[in-house]
Amino acid sequence: MTGGPIPRQARGGEVAGRVRGETGAALPGVAVTLVDSSGQQVARATTGDDGTYRLPAPGRGVYVLIASAPAFRPEAATVTVGDAPAGLDLVMTGATGLGGVVRADSTGVPVMGATVTLTDFRGEVIGSYLSGESGEYSFGALPAGSYTLAVNAPGYRPTAVAVTMTDAAVRQDVDLADAAVIRGSVHVPEAPRPWPRITVSLLDESGDVVRSTHAGDDGRYAFHDLDPGTYTVVATSYAPVRRAVRAGHGRTRLDMHLA
Question: InterPro entries of this UniProt entry (predicted)?
Answer without folding.
Answer: CarboxyPept-like_regulatory (IPR008969), Ig-like_fold (IPR013783)
